[in-house]
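Tokens in:
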């Protein structure tokens, strides 16, 4: 069995496509796609650290990157930084030379590889729960827009200022 998840109808690929679509990766320009992908993967990395520890998360990301780089050359520019707030960097540099669709495909492959590796450890159902739950905190593009629009901000009591 290869280290990377096949981009087919597997649980990992279906899950990855859903999370990437939710995060808005690939919908706009390459830089926006890179930011959304980095944010999704950073949030996933941060939260997975709670479940598998920093060494476990490092092992998952290292193996997932190694398995997906041959099919997605832009991932050669992406680096994993263990125990850092920015656990994955390099998407912005990759966005300079790759279209948003390539970034989307690479993020899907990387998230799918992480989910596939987790699935081998704890089973598909729990892996799906861990990855989907962890990525649920990533704001959607609409939520980011609302946060930047002061007319939609609410106070602690729920009132619009």
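Residues out:
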């Amino acid at each position: 069995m290869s280290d990377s998840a096949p981009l087919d109808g597997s649980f990992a690929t279906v899950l990855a496509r859903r999370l990437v679509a939710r995060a808005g990766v690939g919908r706009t320009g390459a830089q926006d796609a890179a930011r959304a992908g980095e944010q999704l993967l950073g949030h996933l990395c941060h939260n997975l650290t709670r479940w598998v520890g920093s060494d476990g998360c490092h092992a998952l990301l290292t193996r997932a990157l190694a398995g997906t780089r041959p099919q997605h050359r832009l991932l050669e520019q992406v680096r994993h930084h263990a125990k850092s707030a920015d656990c994955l960097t390099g998407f912005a540099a990759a966005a300079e030379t790759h279209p948003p669709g390539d970034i989307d495909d690479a993020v899907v492959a990387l998230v799918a590889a992480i989910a596939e590796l987790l699935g081998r450890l704890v089973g598909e159902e729990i892996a799906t729960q861990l990855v989907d739950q962890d990525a649920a905190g990533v704001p959607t593009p609409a939520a980011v827009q609302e946060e930047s629009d002061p007319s939609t901000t609410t106070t602690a009591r729920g009132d619009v200022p």
